[in-house]
Amino acid sequence: MTAARLLVRCPNRRGIIAAISNFILDRGGDIRECSQYASGPTFFQRTVFATPALDEQLERDFQRDVAERFGMQWWLTDPSRPKRVAILVSRYDHCLLDLLWRSRRGELPIDVGVVVSNHPDLADAVAGFGIPYEHVPVTPETKPQAEQRQLELVRGRYDLIVLARYMQVLSPGFLDAVGIPLINIHHSFLPSFAGANPYQRARERGVKLIGATAHYVTEELDEGPIIEQGIVRVTHRDEADELARRGADVERTVLARAVGWHCEDRVLRDGRTTVVL
Fold first, then answer.
1. Which of 130, 183, 230, 249 is 20 to 30 A (C-alpha) from 223?
2. Whole-prediction pTM value?
């Protein structure tokens, strides 16, 4: 028996769960895990099952017998195959090294194939993991050429791009051309402080909570569908450096959870938000 994961999104109506279950049963399969959610007119389901064969015939049969009947968008994947991931980073190393460490220990179902940075600073740290490091400088004048080089490095080779504190805004043209999801991590405060020195300005305002948000990248800066968030409580005794240290810790864990959920096929987009099954 071979493990398989099935994700579906379709108009909500009666009989969907039964149709999927009967399809798997009729082909000698065995459901191991199932989670579903209905959001208004839309239905979502994630099913993990064992099957005698995970092949094109199974896909064709599912499209003909189930997907067409219910108007489904669906994805059938092999859980034993880690997602191929490219990481973009600038100078901050905490999220990058955490992802590489978790990948090496088998804590994330990812296979990191390349790290691309607009600075050379982290090359030695990445070399210790045996992963190629590509330095692609970016200036306002050379941004189109830099993005073209980035596309040459990642397009058609990876399932996901992770921005592990990559401090450049990717152009709409790049997002259209790359053809795969991108996940970003950024600090988020209550209240929010964008721009330079956010932790210092947060301390000056006396914030009591700091946090981080992981989301999919869209053309709207930091407005993509949110996958995961985390917070930590702070006090007036914490200096800006301590806020930054604790914020970095939240960023690491939030990004790791978001990447893990995406690569376990748990995340489905629902307009401007997400469903995590």
1. 249
2. 0.93
